[in-house]
Design a protein that fits this description.
- It is a single chain.
- With 69 residues, the chain is mainly alpha-helical.
- It has one domain.
- 51% of the residues lie in helices and 12% in strands.
- The protein has two helices and three strands, in the order H-E-E-E-H.
- Strand 2 and strand 3 form a beta hairpin.
- Helix 1 packs antiparallel against helix 2.
- The structure holds zinc ion (ZN).
Length: 69
């Protein structure tokens, strides 16, 4: 489980480092194209507000796992 926690924590830092603009399907940093956010991996488009809400909810759900001592 320790390895898994470290992976989730690293992922969380990556999400925050990209201001939450990360594809929820691929965990891939999104690129901004004409004010739309498009995933370079799967091609999905995302709204910035939706992404932030999604990742904040993800963090709240994963908090006990990520920050387990
Ligand atoms: Zn994607």
């Amino acid at each position: 489980m320790h390895t898994s926690n470290e992976r989730m924590l690293a992922h969380w830092w990556m999400v925050k480092g990209n201001q939450y603009m990360v594809c929820p399907r691929c965990w891939y940093p999104l690129v901004s194209i004409d004010e739309n956010l498009k995933c370079p991996e799967c091609g999905d488009s995302h709204e910035p507000e939706d992404l932030k809400a999604l990742w904040v909810a993800w963090h709240a759900k994963m908090y006990p796992v990520i920050h387990e001592e």
